[in-house]
Amino acid sequence: MFASYKTINQKQMLIKTIENTLYAYGSIWQGDGTWFCETLNRLESSYSQITIRLHTDGGSVFEGNLMFNAINKSTSDIEIIIDGIAASMGAIIILASNKVKIVDNGFVMIHAPSVYGSGTASELESQASLLRKMESTFKERLSTKTNLTAGQIDDLMIGDHWFNAQECLDMGLVSEIVPWVVQPAIEIQTEQMQPSDVFSAYASLLTMPNLNSQKLDDNMKQLIIQALKLPNVTAQSSDTAVLEALQSQIQTERDEKNDALNELKQYKKSQITAYLDRVEAKGILKKEDRQLYENIGEKAGFDALAKVLEGVKPTAPNISALITNADAQQGTDQWTFDQWQKEDPKGLEAMASANPDKFQKLFNQKYKK
What are 3-62's pLDDT values in tens digits? Predict the structure, then answer.
């Protein structure tokens, strides 16, 4: 629970809102804390009372701390309901609220933070030092929110300790036990979600421990298949087959997006080429200066290129300036954009790559941006 490096089979935490309720289901990986905070902030702007329904086996301490802090500092009245388990870092997150409920078949698991890795003795000692600091923070939070003694809390840092709903109530981890609801509290509404969102939600449901023994409803699979037009699968297909079909469709969409971006890049390049052909034919720029303006177009865009060339007159370039190193000239620091264009266009080109801030400043001064 010290780090959150994903493997190919690990899914991002499912974070979803329905009215004033925020659902946080799954393991806590890198980025989930930020996602959770952004989602909670949106709810806080609309609701003074918020319910967080939590089901997690833990994960990253750093990301979990973000979630804890967001709940703890919230000006809204926040209630947490443990829908399945709150294990590892999840057990620490629930300590951020004074109103915590747990379903009657729910569990909480507490243990010390841990890390899986390798390294030198010094590196491992550094990791151990950090783990001790994390452990101290865990103990402090447990001491504040529970009725446990210091010795009992120390014992919780050795091994894994599982507590059922009644034990959680007795030790002060939760304030109330609520009945378990047969239907999952969260639904996948495919018509309101992108394929990647559906994939994350579906995958999260598949990996939830309290659902592992259940087959996902055929009606839900049928809705997903129809909404996303998944080929070669039906409601009777296995959960894995539907998941693979979703993965395939997402990859196809990514490939199509990349192709579209490449086409757009080629279009912009052809647009610049056609424009330079026209202005070159009109004698506005010389052939030997063309590369300079192509680079400006690629870096600053077509509109910027057009504005630059509006100020260029069809005059012969200053040959002596072309063969002079711009850095060696005296007084170039005071040159305007127009002076650079006239006296040393190649130096201007070099500036666009080597000193883009200076180039942009001169450009903005010329066009009063």
Answer: 333 333 445 688 888 899 999 998 898 888 899 999 999 999 889 999 999 999 888 888
List of residues 6+ apart from 80 with CB closer than 8 A: 51, 52, 53, 54, 71, 93, 94, 96, 97, 99, 100, 101
Domains of the chain: 14-178 (3.90.226.10), 188-279 (no CATH), 282-367 (no CATH)
DSSP summary character for residue 59? B
Q: pLDDT tens for residues 150-181?
A: 999 999 999 899 999 999 999 999 999 998 75
- The helix (H) or strand (E) run that includes residue 24 is strand 21-25
Specify whether the CB–CB gap between 308 and 275 falls below 8 A.
no
From CA 323, how far away is CA 342, in angstroms rounded? 13
Tokens 């006296």 found at? 343
Q: What average pLDDT does the segment 135-162 reach?
A: 90
For residue 87, what pLDDT band results from cuts at 50, 70 and 90?
very high
Measured CA to CA in angstroms, residue 308 lies from 98, 268, 335, 355, 367 at distances of: 62, 17, 16, 18, 9
Among 47-56, 151-160, 186-195, 316-325, which stretch is predicted with the lowest mean pLDDT?
316-325
Q: How far apart are CA 30 and CA 35, in angstroms?
A: 10
Query: Do 206 and 247 contact (CB within 8 A), yes or no?
Result: no
Structure tokens at 305: 């290129």
Residue whose entry in the numeric block shows the structure tokens 């394929």: 195
Q: Whole-angstrom Cα distance, residue 6 to residue 117?
A: 14
| Amino acid letter, 157 | M
- CA angle, 209 as apex, 205 and 211 as ends, to 5°? 50
Give which of 362, 242, 250, 368 is closest to 296, Cα–Cα. Answer: 362
Instruction: Please check whether residue 138 is in contact with residue 158, taking contact to mean a CB–CB distance below 8 angstroms.
Output: no
